[in-house]
Amino acid sequence: MIGKTRVLVAGTAVMALGLTAACGGGKSSSTSSSSGSSAKPAFNAALNTVYNPSTKKGGTVRMANSGDWESLDPGDMYYGYEWDFGRLYGRSLMTFKSEPGAAGNELTPDLATAAGVPSDAGKTWTYKIKPNIKFEDGAVVKTADIKYAVARSIDKQVFPDGPAYFDAMLNWPAGYKGPYKSKGANIDSAIQTPDDTTIVFHLKKAFGGFDYLAALPQTYPVPQAKDTGANYKQHVVSTGPYMFDQNNLGKNFSLKRNPNWDASTDTVRKALPDAFQVQLNGNADDIDNRLIAGSLDVDVVGTGVQPAALGRVVGDPTLKAQADNAQQARLWYTSINGNVAPLNNVDCRKAVELAADKTGYQSAYGGALAGGDPATTVMPPTVVGYQKFDLYPSPDNKGDTTAAKQALQACNQPNGFSTNISYRAERPKEKAAAEALQESLGKVGIKLTLKAFPQSAYFSQYAGNPPYAKTNGLGLMINGWGADWNDGFGFLSQIVDSRVIRETGGSSNTSVRDPQVDSMLDAAVATTDANARNQQWAAIDKKVMEDAYILPGVYSKALLFRSKNLTNMYVQQNYAMYDYASLGVA
Amino acid sequence: MITYIIRRLFAALVLLFIVSAAVFAIFYLIPRLAGATPETLATRYVGRAATPETVHLIASKLGFYDPIWVQYGRWVKAIFFGSSYDIGTGVEHCPAPCFGYSFLTEQPVWPDLVSRFPVTLSLAIGAAVLWVFFGVSTGVISALRPGSVLDRSAMGISLAGVSLPIFFTGLLSLLIFSYKLGWTAPGGSYTPFTENPGEWAYDMLLPWIVLAFQFSAAYARLTRAGMLETLGEDYIRTARAKGLPERTVNLQHGLRAALTPLLTIFGLDFGLLLGGAILTEQVFSLPGLGKYAVDAITNNDLPKILGVTMVAAFFVVIANLVVDLLYAVVDPRVRIG
Fold first, then answer.
1. CA separation for the pair A405, A411 (Å, rounded)
2. Three-state secondary structure along chain B?
3. Residue A19 has pLDDT above 60, yes or no
4. CA nearest B106 in A: which residue?
């Protein structure tokens, strides 16, 4: 009896406590209310200009992520939002300008005093770093810390998620596996640090765009004495304006000001807020609701609102005025497999290009706002080197059946042909795109059979596995690609170079096999003059389209929601999301 | 009684062993039987531009080249004797009970489970108090006034509670009470009880209510049905004939007999919730075991899936044992031994 009474009393107390707290009004916001904003909201107001500019310091930016970071370790991250956010706690040799518009694609020195100086026809790159830049513990950053950071990042057993450019391009000693496994190895053949402010990179082959690699988070300095390998993500030693305050992996983390960051050495970061709070693994729809309600400031992933909120935002003029339709350096496309007959005939491939209804493709990906614009080139407009052209024009992008039938005549398939189209089973947009193509290509007699494959093995076992794709007649393969950085190499190298195709599977290039394209890529990569290089990227784009190995679908766009609580908001074009290094609290 | 408890605990251990083997087979063996190779399994745990060499390294690191029974044996051994893990700069030891390391975050699973359990416990206890109180009360009132407006209204609402999924009621409640009215905490809010009990209760209030709404509906209907059946029994008529007060007849004789099946259901429900209220935690972004399970399944993070499954199974088994013991308290006819 006593037990029962206790339970009752405890239960009542808990309920009373809850009701009292509820009536009490709840948490105090960590930021001031939205009233601090003086700018007038307008659709796309932060697309090419700074919305609500301010120099006011203080406050906390509240962010949420519907998933989790691959890793907070700068050597082990690959998503664009991780690189955008990483600049708050890390500084690379080079970085992208914190400016709206096309300037956001331009590189600027960060730790370095100037852009890299090439020598040996682009095989050697030298950087000088600013003196007296400090880690969060006050230790001075030396080039040896950058050398160590780059070297550790090539250990793919410990850091499997980061890009592999340094591993592939630097002239490492034979058998070198990083400082953990190849302890004490001399790596001067790859990286030299003649003094504490100079670092020299030696490449196997000339690479004109090495400054882009110098902007990777893998060049954030790592002090060897503080490196804890796979556990370094628990406490990354900061060089940026913020350092980790709390870090509950998988749940949340927060940043506070780094007292050893010197604003006079940093032309990129504004460092206006006092702190950042990031909640992880949140409910994506709830994150949108919180953004709209103002109880959250940023969806840190930066890929736009979910379908559930899209209608609300677009349908309500007040909410739409808080949205920005950002162009992303991403193309949703379909690979046309020249290994599968009759698509081994270029005219049959051209028939596919001509018959495709791009508006159906656009609808499949969510329409003009959430999906993007119909695409006619491989490189999206935000990629440096992009040139607008359309080799397969059609009225209103709905497909040209007359021209397509002529192409079918030319490839000796006047009545059309049958083939399969693959897509990732977990992606309804890809299925819808396949259905849209099935309908439009069917008008000229090209009959498509839809084949769904699991996402996890799509490239390793199915579409990206050439023997499987050929044997199973995968003539068309739904695909998508986003740039590592916004230039021709960052976008094209993994999807049009035939030498990245592996017979064992796993390549993102599932169709482009043209030795001439490979040669053009080699020439562009070795060119150190950026203007000349950009012309070469455009020429490669045209060549691939002439080959008709890629059917461009949609230049991806995202509908970002702009918080009323924040200042200095603009879309940083390289990351295609708000510039987290410039945000302030109203 | 003690012999009975020991026997049940031993049976529980056997059950947990079977559950672990079944889960292991589902996530490790079946994909292999379906044609997956160590490399295709490892592809899930590497970055988007991983080379075949990287995939091979990760497959090797995660032990995918070993026979399945070796992998299972290693996992079981780690629970009792701990395990070691190469973090690059050295070797980290995970003491027993070590449920392995996450394939994705490379962090040990057990501390994650321990840190997330208070969130799930907070949700389960608060919701259970509400649903038992409101569910049983509503059921009793309905049973005492069958066919009345009160009864019909209560059963109508409870039907809605049973029918409406939590991802609907949860998001709708958040939209109205948190974002429109500002009465309750937004999604993703959780403050540990030990830090600030007031904030804890404020943060948990809406998840409690939403979860309890669904459960109390079922309990109301069960209580009503049980009470109606019991109140028609001969001994109830006898009790009334003896002149016992109506309150005593209804609560001590009627409700007590109706409680036995409720106790069984409660034990199962509460045990399941302790293993993670998956939908509620997902909707409210609560960092509990349920959310942990969802994220683990989404990412194919097998050690996490195994860990949270074992915890959930443990609580279901224990809750059942406690319920069986409580039978003797609720119903004197039951003798345990």
1. 10
2. CHHHHHHHHHHHHHHHHHHHHHHHHHHHHHHHHCCCCHHHHHHHHCCCCCCHHHHHHHHHHCCCCCCHHHHHHHHHHHHHHCEEEECCCCEEEECCCCCCECCCCCCEHHHHHHHHHHHHHHHHHHHHHHHHHHHHHHHHHHHHCCCCHHHHHHHHHHHHHHHCCHHHHHHHHHHHHHHHCCCCCCCCCCCCCCCCHHHHHHHHHHHHHHHHHHHHHHHHHHHHHHHHHHHCCHHHHHHHHCCCCHHHHHHHHHHHHHHHHHHHHHHHHHHHHHCCCHHHHHHCCCCCHHHHHHHHHHCCCHHHHHHHHHHHHHHHHHHHHHHHHHHHHHCCCCCCC
3. no
4. A230
Summarize pLDDT for A170-205 with one digit per residue, the tens. Answer: 999 999 999 999 999 999 999 999 999 999 999 999
Report the C-alpha gap between A179 and B43 in whole angstroms: 25
What is the band of B100 on the pLDDT scale with cuts at 50, 70, 90? confident
Band (pLDDT 50/70/90 cuts) for residue B24 is: confident
The number of C-beta contacts closer than 8 angstroms across A and B is 181
- Is A290–B61 a contact, with Cβ atoms under 8 angstroms apart? no
CA-to-CA separations, A141 to A131, A136, A223, A238, in angstroms, rounded:
8, 10, 8, 11
- The angle that helices B166-173 and B197-231 make with each other, rounded to 10 degrees, is 130
How many angstroms from the chain centroid is the CA of residue A460?
Answer: 21
User: Does the beta-carbon distance from A15 to B130 stay under 8 Å?
Assistant: yes
B140 to chain A nearest CA, in Å?
17
In b/e form, how buried is each residue of A540-557, taking b as 16+ CB within 10 angstroms? bbebbbebbbbbbbbbbb
State the smallest CA–CA distance between residue B125 and chain A in angstroms: 9
Q: Is the pLDDT assigned to residue A17 strictly greater than 60?
A: no
pLDDT at A507: 79
Q: What is the model's pLDDT at position A83?
A: 96
> How far is residue A215 from each of residues A18, A95, A108, A276, measured CA to CA in Å?
50, 5, 9, 23
Residue in the structure block whose two tokens are 């399941």 = B272
pLDDT digits 0-9 by tens, B39-98: 888 887 877 667 778 888 888 988 899 998 999 999 899 989 988 888 888 888 888 888
Question: Would you call B40 and A160 a contact, using CB atoms and an 8 Å cutoff?
Answer: no
The predicted pLDDT at position B48 comes to 66
Q: Which residues of A218-239 are buried (b: 16+ CB within 10 A; e: fewer)?
A: bbbbbbeeebebbbbbeebbbb
pLDDT digits (tens, 9 = 90+) for A406-415: 999 999 999 9
Of the pLDDT bands very low, low, confident and very high (cuts 50, 70, 90), residue B322 is confident
* Chain B environment of A281 (Cβ under 8 Å): 285, 287, 291, 295
Region A248-273 average pLDDT:
95
Question: What's the rounded mean pLDDT across residues A99-104?
Answer: 94
For residue B169, which residues of chain A lie inside 8 Å, CB to CB?
Answer: none
Any idea what the Cα angle at residue B329 is, between residues B327 and B332, rounded to 5°?
Answer: 85
Interface test mutation site (partner B, options A31, A222, A281, A292, max chain B beta carbons within 10 A)? A281
Nearest to B186 among A68, A71, A295 (CB): A295
Query: Tokens 């429109």 label which residue?
Result: B180
CB atoms within 10 A of CB A157: 19
The per-residue pLDDT for A342 is 97
Mapped onto helix, strand or coil, the DSSP state of residue A30 is: coil
Residue A437, classed as helix, strand or coil, is helix
Q: Which residues pair with A201 in a beta bridge?
A: A125, A191
Distance between alpha carbon A146 and the CA centroid of its chain, in Å? 23
Nearest CA to B185 among B206, B210, B209? B206
The answer to whether the Cα torsion of B198, B204, B209, B215 is positive or negative is: negative
